[in-house]
Design brief:
Distance between the termini: 48 Å
Shape: globular
Strand order of the largest sheet: 3-9-8
Helix content: 10-25%
Order of helices and strands: EEEEEEEEEEHH
Structural class: alpha+beta
CATH topology: Beta-clip-like
CATH superfamily: SET domain
CATH architecture: Beta Complex
Strand content: 25-35%
Number of strands: 10
Radius of gyration: 15 Å
């Protein structure tokens, strides 16, 4: 993939997903219209590949560091995976391949109609989520007890 070019969206079928208003004020989310089994590839996080030195002062929320040299700017709306929300109890996880592709895979069976979620990691959590409070279903339920 060349720097600055968008990669093709890799999904089973973009019609298998819908962008939804997420629960409890977490913005938008990505819901599946088809079931996934544990280990299934769900979608690829795509965008503009940029050198890390060029985004040093960029404050966007959709930056996904691939390695010490490159980051994917997933902010364009054609990146369906950008709508996947954080969860402290996720149903998917991220795998970064040797060639820098960011793949989202199911870590448990996911039913039709479920929102796709993954753990954004400590650094992102501490910078963006912790200051306003986590809005994932696990944390919302914990707060309501």
């Amino acid at each position: 993939m060349k720097t600055g070019l968008k990669s093709q969206q890799k999904v089973k079928n973009s019609k298998d997903f819908s962008v939804i208003k997420a629960e409890k004020g977490a913005g938008l989310g990505l819901k599946t219209k088809v079931p996934f089994k544990k280990g299934d590839f769900i979608i690829e996080y795509i965008g503009i590949r940029k050198e890390n030195k060029d985004i040093e002062y960029h404050t966007g929320k959709y930056l996904f560091e691939v390695n010490s040299k490159y980051t994917i700017d997933g902010s364009p709306r054609w990146n369906l995976a950008r709508y996947i929300n954080h969860s402290c109890k996720p149903n998917s996880e991220v795998e970064i391949s040797r060639d820098g592709k960011i793949k989202i895979e199911a870590i448990k069976n996911i039913k039709e109609g479920e929102e796709i979620t993954y753990d954004y990691g400590k650094e992102y959590f501490d910078e963006f989520i912790k200051p306003i409070g986590c809005k994932c279903s696990k944390c919302i339920m914990k707060k309501s007890k």
